Amino acid sequence: MKFDYAEKSANVKADALLVPVYEGKGLNAYKYGAQLAALYHKADFEGKAGTQLLLHKSDAVAADRVHLIGLGKSDKSGPQQLGEAIAGFFRSGAVNTSKLSHVAIALEAAKGKDEEIGRWCAEGALLGDYHFDVLFSKADKKKHHAKTVTLAGGKAGKLKQGVAYGEVTAQYTAHCRDLVNEPSNRINPATLAKFAQDMAKAVPGLKCKILHKPEIEKLKMGAFLGVNAGSDIPAHLIVLEWHGGKKSDAPIAYVGKGLCFDSGGYDIKPAAGMLGMKMDMGGGAATICALGAIGKLKLKVNAIGIVPATENLINGAAYHPGSVLTSMSGQTIEIGNTDAEGRLILCDALTYAQREFKPRVIVDMATLTGAQVVALGNKVTGLMSNDDKVANGLEKAFKAVGEEVWRLPLPDFYDKQLDSTIADMQNIGGNPGTVTAALFLQRFIDKGQKWAHLDIAGPCMNDSDGWRLWSSKSATGTPVRPLVEFAENY
Ligand code: BES
Ligand code: MN
Ligand code: ZN
Description:
This protein has helices at about 35, 80-90, 95, 115-130, 155-180, 190-200, 215-220, 220-230, 270-275, 280-295, 340-355, 370-375, 390-400, 435-440, 480-490, and strands at about 1-5, 15-20, 50-55, 65-70, 100-105, 150, 205-210, 235-245, 250-255, 260, 300-310, 325, 330-335, 360-365, 380-385, 405, 425, 450-455, 460, 475. The protein is an alpha/beta fold.
């Protein structure tokens, strides 16, 4: 998809012109508004957010057809709502069924800074148009994609800057979606590492290092290796580095769970629970792709991405319920449940991040607990942190990109539920499961180290209809955009 610019929306000879409409405001903002308004009854389209109406061949505009897209109430509608309305159009199937190759967007009535408008137009169009169709063998199953999007009626210069930014965030979010949507026989610890390396090669200045099993053994990452023991594919530790800031500045470290398939291990998951578990590397995919976007945007920050990648499978060497593992930190862990594996691979990655990089803040993200889905559903990420400023920064970052997060507490009185009678701790801590998982991770955070944890078990994969910029029944790519935003502003 390519973006270009035009002065007047009425003159663009596109297959379709999107005309954004504020709720109850009609089409007065457009020169051709009265002519279009005569084509439908007011009650047919009020401009409510999420609605659209197709109008065929009006002489008022050069485009073949017009799609009115609702923005909702004008006092609550800015670039974000415009982007979401655009995403809704691209997701609706109109591009595919009508084989629209050239779509124009009328920006005469758009409110907000042109740079923001450009960014949200690009993100809305690209992410709304996202489909994971690479695995269909037949051409007719592949979706038709729009090739050109013309932004018409705005200031081209500023719009262009915003589009350039939005193209990057959207493309890396789409990469993240691809990685999560890909089945686990195609994306495994080795191919995930290969993706990170190839991605880094395409971004000047972005470094990628893969630590293989012998090096992971040398680092004594016994918790990570314990999970990996049951898999024929050796563990990979993916390390990405972006140095866009001052040499002396401590970096932000992102750490993502790269569990390429979670069978549960000997505490095996029931079939229905196992089916979706290719997505258990969603936090890792987001970490990799956020670093890609940060590098591509040349953000003036230092940022690190660390992804422990393995599968959680069963064989004669797999760890057992009751096994005791020694983590890189030296702390010993009794395995209360082999399905609580995410925290085991993360705890060693957190130790590595602190020892190797002395980060000014660590944010880890993981599809960590089913309890997160129970508590917050699939649209709201769980946030836990030992620092209010970090938590506020993340809340701001999510809000800025139109995603949702909710902070949960980390009270120390739940921490003792992690105690074990034979080791320093066990890997399960009872209810509330999302919080005790985070409290487990916190045991690996050094004194004074700022840290936040994002549980994306629900939001990683959207199994219902599309929403905001998310696609339907497919990976969402969260939290790539919040992570880029946080890196830029924290
Ligand atoms: N990957 C799962 C969590 C998960 C569940 C993600 C559903 C997405 C959707 C994780 O490894 C897991 O199995 N967690 C267990 C922990 C329990 C054994 C303490 C869970 O939440 O049931
Ligand atoms: Mn598990
Ligand atoms: Zn898991």
